[in-house]
Specification:
Length: 183
């Protein structure tokens, strides 16, 4: 199962659709567009040693509990999500929202509302995966990722399907926007 499908399977689409004011199909379509962008932005950040360090520290501040046993969207801190989205995309945030909002029937307003909901979920998911990779049984990763080989960038690359990101056309659309990411 891909990281996108794994995360999506933990999100109650009916609850998400209700919070977004759309039907479940639209909520799923928007989520399938937004998740690769968030993961890809984090992967771009992790390519730089400073960005990897910053992302690792942020992961240590996010409990894996949000994704344990399925997500309760009422537990998602969208203020934290907005901060994560701002850090991941930086001054490219509006361009990412515009790009994602132009895909299919997904609008820009929906993407702008969805990204802060998904960002804490993605962080919790990554914290869980990183903890498992580092062999920790605790909720938080215990050791610093390596900047090169075997580090956070490799974990994100693996989750996204290798260095190409596994994002297909979306990766091509966002590749220029995300560049090397923010630190």
């Amino acid at each position: 199962m891909s990281a996108i499908d794994d995360i999506l399977a933990q999100i109650p689409l009916a609850q998400l659709a209700g919070q977004l004011g759309v039907d479940e199909q639209t909520a799923e379509q928007a989520t399938r567009a937004a998740l690769p962008a968030l993961l890809g932005g984090m992967q771009a950040n992790a390519q730089d040693p400073g960005g990897a360090r910053s992302l690792f520290e942020a992961l240590g501040q996010h409990s894996t509990g949000l994704v344990e046993g399925g997500v309760d969207l009422d537990q998602v801190d969208t203020d934290d999500g907005s901060k994560i989205v701002n850090h991941v995309f930086g001054d490219q945030q509006a361009e990412v929202v515009n790009t994602l909002g132009g895909l299919g029937s997904v609008g820009k307003g929906l993407i702008a509302k969805l990204l802060p909901l998904l960002a804490p979920i993605v962080m919790s998911y990554l914290a869980k995966k990183l903890g498992a990779k580092l062999g920790g049984n605790s909720e938080e990763p215990q050791q610093q990722p390596q900047a090169q080989g075997g580090g956070l960038g490799d974990l994100l690359g693996g989750l996204l399907g290798g260095s190409g990101g596994g994002l297909g056309g979306l990766g091509d659309l966002l590749g220029g926007l995300l560049g090397g990411g923010r630190k």
